[in-house]
Amino acid sequence: MTNGPVEVSYTVYEDFEHYTGGIYVHTAGKQLGGHAVKMIGWGTENGTPYWICANSWNSDWGENGFFRIIRGLDECGIESGVVAGEPKL
Question: Domain-by-domain residue ranges, the chain?
């Protein structure tokens, strides 16, 4: 991310509450509502692209408070809900 992290909003499903690690892909459970987090980077694991996000649910959740979500498929609407600003100096 050339200009730093961005804020993203997405739909949360029941299975996301129980995420403990790995690349998240929604598989089960009803829609619970929306949430917003800070997207801080990206990567690839075993050929699967993902986004890295910082959650606000504390460091006991997910991967020490962070999660990875599949990239390129607009999973849970996360790629449609990007908000960023560029300061005009």
Answer: 6-83
Digit-coded pLDDT (tens) for 26-59? 999 999 999 999 999 999 999 999 999 999 999 9
With H, G, I as helix, E, B as strand and everything else as coil, classify residue 14.
helix
- Phi and psi of 75, rounded to 5°? -55, 125
Does CATH number 3.50.50.60 belong to domain 6-83?
Answer: no
Report the predicted TM-score, pTM, of the whole model to 2 decimal places: 0.90
Give how far Cα 27 sits from Cα of 6, 14, 44, Å. Answer: 26, 9, 20
| pLDDT bracket for residue 4 (50, 70, 90) | confident
Q: Which residues of 13-44 are buried (b: 16+ CB within 10 A; e: fewer)?
A: beebeebeeebbebeeeeeeeebebebeeeee
